[in-house]
Amino acid sequence: MFVGVHPLAGFDKLLHYRVPEALRASVTVGSLVRAPIRGSFTLGIVGELGAPKDFPQEKLKPLAAVVYPFPALPPDLLELARWLAAYYAAPLDGVIETMLPAAVRKAAQLKQEKLLVLARRPDADELAALTKRAPQQAKLVAFLAQQFKPPQKSLVLARLDLTAAVVSALMKRGLVREETRRVERVAYADEYTGGELVAAQPHTLNTEQQAATDALATSLAVKKFGVTLLQGVTGSGKTEVYLRAIHTALRDGGGVVFLVPEVALTPQTVARLRSRLEAIAPGQQVVVWHSHLSEGERLDGWLALATGTARVVVGARSAVFAPVRDLRLIVVDEEHEPAYKQDETPRYHARDTAVMRAKLAGAFCLLGSATPSLESFANASAGKYGLLRLTQRVDDRKLPYIDVVDMRVEVARTRGATSLSRRLADAMHDRFEKKEQTILFINRRGYSRSMQCRKCGETVECTHCSVAMTYHRTDETLRCHLCGDQRGAPSRCPKCAAPDIRWQGLGTQRVEEAVRRVLPRARIERMDTDTMAKKNRFREVLSEFRAGKIDVLVGTQMIGKGLDFPNVTLVGLVDADLSMHVPDFRANERTFQLLVQVAGRAGRGDRAGEVVVQTFTPQAGAIQYSRHADYDGFAAEELGVRQRFHYPPYRHLIHHLFRGPNPEKLKFFAEQWARHVEKELGNRVELRGPTPSPIEKIKDEYRWQLWYFTSGVTRVTADLAALRAKFAWPDDITQVLDVDPVNLA
Ligand code: ADP
Ligand code: ZN
Fold first, then answer.
1. Can 401-448+505-641 and 652-739 be said to share one CATH topology?
2. Mean model confidence pLDDT for the chain
3. Which secondary structure element, helix H or strand E, spans residue 156, and what is its range?
4. Quick one: which H or E segment has residue 424?
5. How far is the CA of 141 from the CAs of 138, 148, 524, in angstroms?
6. Do the strands 112-118 and 176-182 form a parallel or antiparallel pair, or are they unpaired?
7. Ligand 1: which of 201, 234, 240 to mutate, most ligand atoms within 8 Å of CB?
8. Residues 107-119: what's their mean pLDDT?
9. Bridge partner residues of 614 (DSSP)
10. Number of the ligand 1 atom closest to the C-alpha atom of 561
């Protein structure tokens, strides 16, 4: 018997081995094995059974070991690995490493613990005698007799203040025995939530939820691949629909992957899901999967899923690779979230990966959002995905009113000295008096500087690419980072000639100061990457906020499921332009999503919510459509732009980044390469650039970039990879390909 193995040691090819007699029963496609390589050993995944065609069998070395008695990458995951490698132009060994947690790869030494077991119960006489002659031994025996499960030796000795000699003596008497057992460290949901268990009752579904649930039950019954987009306004009760679908899948003996964005993986969400899933399927273990697990916890969770002990995983991005058996359903909540994209190689998108995994496993994929990505929406409109809609909020409350404040007027009124409009300041006052809470939201600021006139709101956009042009101070130019077009930076607004054209983003700190001036007596807390650097601070602040100890929360990243604050009746978006006028074709989509999601957070309790949005461009579509959460209106307008400028969902984009210490050389090679690609693939790929990156230099390395626009990714990535391998790159230039990038700015 012979096998082809994908080694995980930087060899991007299949190597063949002989399988020794003893290992034959446990080796199969997808097994994690240890194999000899160049005088040492490597871990690898069995990619195929059989001998190589062009190599003498008798020369093949034997496999050293099989790490787990089940395939670490079952067939669907192995196929997925191959697809990821091809689609994202990433080496297969790196992809496999991403799919297998480090702890699993290390085949980590399982932590062994000694447990004390009462071997037999002494009768009354024996116990009396023992109490007299060896009171310490009697104490231990009495303790063990009371235990429900054999306790850990070290803990018992510490607790009863006994020495190991006492155990030895009892072992000699045959009363106690030691057992070595693996300690369970699975981060089942209740451990992770730190006891914040809230009993969640199933709701009686409303008509729309029932219709969606029925449709999904029908789809699941087919037991074939399919994708459905569940578009439900914020507060329409999508979770309830997910849970019913999960119930159906579990009841039929299937496994389930439930993906949520990392920030949404709060103790509340997890607790709610767990208690609901427990009710659905008693005794069902829910494995939680997120970035803060210890290696041991992750290994245990992985093993529980791989062996079928647990059938449901709730987790962030990488849970899409969890080895759930008999996969029947993948749910991707908040499918539009950019956090689903991994920002290092392999740069996979968990939503797209989920769809592909479902396809390979013959499972069903449910994507949910209040504001679907235009990619998913287009797929649904084209009939590739099913579409289910929840148009009503469960409590029948109206979505909060969005009040758009024109900052051009405010700036004129206060001569530019304002970051909080009078409207917003008044509203905050009002809430403070009523002891209600406010969230001031500042969308994270990108690195790019685009220009905006503070008088008329004009921004400078590239006429070819419909994205904001970026200001480069070094040579006083405005440049387009897609096509490379450039012009001199104006000193006056090209539209109204005011000298006020500049980019001035507001930091959270400045907003905090402004709030302190408006509400000197309020308790204000700032939440951004600076202040949240301390571990657990994020959670602390949120729980103080929930407890009403904070009046105003100023922050950059607190939007997400599970962050329900019933006492928050005002949400202010301080500068909507910060996300709208950045050199990213998704800027409008992000802004629209942000506004609708923010509005959905306001006033979820029994009080009405209000949203105040400050902007210099109140007429922008992203803002106007968000006022009535008009997704269809927004999508129709935005898809028109996307089509005109060849952006997704009409084309795929591939980003090619070049980095090097010498700017002239970098530019030269980027241009050489672009010419080469144009010649070879020009009929299938539209090139834009090369241009300097929005961030021209990081840590003494200069950066250039090139864009490929294409309608089919896999062919192009294969061709690019082949061309790239043959191209004479200098040693000091590194490059990175990013397929379907989500952050352009
Ligand atoms: P969405 O994800 O669509 O924004 P959620 O799933 O978070 O909405 O549901 C919003 C709230 O409504 C939750 O507190 C949930 O428990 C509650 N809910 C869901 N369905 C119902 C229902 N049929 N009746 C009453 N309350 C419901
Ligand atoms: Zn351009």
1. no
2. 85
3. helix 153-160
4. helix 422-433
5. 5, 13, 57
6. antiparallel
7. 240
8. 65
9. 405
10. 7
Distance 204 CA to ligand 1 centre (A): 10
Ligand 1, CB within 6 Å, residue ranges: 203-206, 209, 232, 234-240, 394
- What is 401-448+505-641's CATH topology? Rossmann fold (3.40.50)
Coil vs helix vs strand at 705: strand
| Cα 334 to Cα 641: distance, rounded to the nearest angstrom | 24
Give the amino acid at 112.
Q
| Per-residue three-class SS string for 540-593 | HHHHHHHCCCCCEEEECCCCCCCCCCCCEEEEEECCCHHHHCCCCCCHHHHHHH
Residue closest via CA to ligand 1's atom 23 equals 205
Q: Contact at 8 Å (CB) between 740 and 712?
A: no
DSSP state of 121: -
Hey, where are the domains in the chain? 2-105, 112-182, 189-394, 401-448+505-641, 652-739
Q: Is the pLDDT of residue 604 over 60?
A: no
Report cis status (omega within 30 of 0) of the bond before 338. Answer: no
Q: What is the CATH number of domain 2-105?
A: 3.40.1440.60
Query: How much of the chain exceeds pLDDT 70, in percent?
Result: 89
Instruction: Quote the ligand 2 centre to 116 CA distance (angstroms).
Output: 71
- For the chain, the farthest-separated pair of C-alpha atoms sits apart, in whole angstroms, at 103
Q: Note the ligand closest to the C-alpha atom of 230.
A: 1
Return the higher-pLDDT residue of 580 and 726.
Answer: 726
What pLDDT, on a 0 to 100 scale, did the predictor assign at position 428? 94
d(CA 229, CA 177): 57
What SS3 class is residue 666?
helix
Closest ligand to residue 485's CA = 2
The pLDDT of residue 354: 98
Q: Which of 745, 743, 740 minimizes the C-alpha distance to 355?
A: 740
pTM for this entry: 0.84
Pairing type for strands 65-66 and 568-573 reads: unpaired
CA 567 from chain center: how many Å?
28
Asked whether the beta carbons of 669 and 639 are under 8 A apart, the reply is no
**Alpha-carbon distance 225 to 221, whole Å?**
11
Q: What is the dihedral of CA 504, 507, 510, 511, to 10 degrees?
A: 100
DSSP class of residue 59 equals: G
Which tokens hold the place of 626? 């968000």
- The number of the ligand 1 atom at minimal distance from the alpha carbon of 209 is 23
Q: Which CATH number is correct for 189-394, 3.40.50.880, 3.30.413.10, 3.40.50.300, 3.30.450.40? A: 3.40.50.300
- Ligand 1: which residue has its CA nearest to atom 17? 237
Residue whose CB lies within 8 A of the most ligand 1 atoms, among 198, 203, 388, for a mutation test: 203
Higher local confidence (pLDDT), 143 or 673:
673
Write down the architecture of domain 652-739 according to CATH.
Answer: 2-Layer Sandwich (3.30)
What's residue 337's pLDDT? 93
Quick one: tokens of 299?
Answer: 């290994």
What is the rounded (10 degree) CA torsion for 475, 476, 480, 481? 50
Nearest to 287 by CA among 191, 357, 356, 195: 191
E strand map for 53-152: 65-66, 112-118
Asked whether 745 and 582 are in contact (CB, 8 A), the reply is yes
Q: Which ligand 1 atom is nearest residue 233's CA?
A: 3
| Dist CA 337 CA 745 (whole Å) | 16
- The pLDDT tens digits of the residues spanning 288-325 come to 888 777 777 888 889 999 988 899 999 999 999 999 99
pLDDT digits (tens, 9 = 90+) for 203-256: 889 999 999 999 999 999 999 999 999 999 988 999 999 999 999 999 899 999
Atom 13 of ligand 1 has which residue's CA nearest to it?
237
d(CA 117, CA 141): 10
